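Data availability (excerpt). All sequences and predicted token strings are deposited with the supplementary files. A representative entry, Homoserine O-acetyltransferase, is shown inline so that the format can be inspected without opening the archive.
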Amino acid sequence: MPINIPKNLPAGEILRKEKIFVMEEDRAQTQQIRPLNILVCNLMPEKEKTELQLLRLLGNTPLQTNVTFLNTATYLSKNVSKSHLDTFYKTFKEIKHRRFDGMIITGAPVERMEFEDVHYWNEITEIMDWAKINVTSCMYICWGAQAALYHHFGIGKFELPKKCSGIYSHVITDLTVDLVRGFSDEYVAPHSRHTSVSIDDVRNCPELRLLSYSEEAGPFIIQSKDTKHIMITGHLEYDATTLADEYNRDVEKGEPVELPINYFPNNDPNKTPKNTWRAHSHLLFYNWLNYYVYQETPYDWHFVDDMIEYHI
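Structure token line:
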């Protein structure tokens, strides 16, 4: 089934070349089918790259999916044109009257800041609170995961002695949970962050379940026990060369960065890295959309509103 995207979105042409079934809005409206409505709050600086990465994963399931991109109103991104934002993005004010089946909040380059010092922190917390009622299931990535753990569960972050960057091995704590159904006992995934959360704090929180972790990189997949919130502390959505791009960017800035761990062949930054996590990336998003969005979301949100009003 297709993923529905805004007309003329630049990522669309690339997705078509990769044989991913995309459908623009005008054609999708003619189909007599209830698609899933997914909201993506994209806080990453290079928004077009993140759009493409997430659309690849959202588009590789049998479910028809409408994607709405959300941008902060309280902070204007410096790495994407205003015309791109105006054409393809909404603000929270424009969508807060709607209901969504799923929501993704991405990472953001603000992890070294205190949460309350982030320009758009109040806006993000308002979105997260709104989502408790208006979204069936939420996925949070990297800084988004840390923000959700802090806001919803009171778990803070701490700065690492050096950047956690590379491809790390992870294990699963419970293979019977639907979110990790089909995962290997051990698998790899990318991380790219300067901060982390305590694995003990996650384990000791009665509202959370630690599904996957790395001995080196710490907690990775965390799920609330009501299955409403899914926190991913790394970047399974990354392309093969994303960590290389980040490394080269930091080197050009003169930052004291080390080579990403287990990433470049023979630790040679001149060699092209391979994507060794692709299968589990697709599996995670497939499981999320199937088990926690499609099978849990109401067919008609108006019916839910009527039931709530009746019980009140």
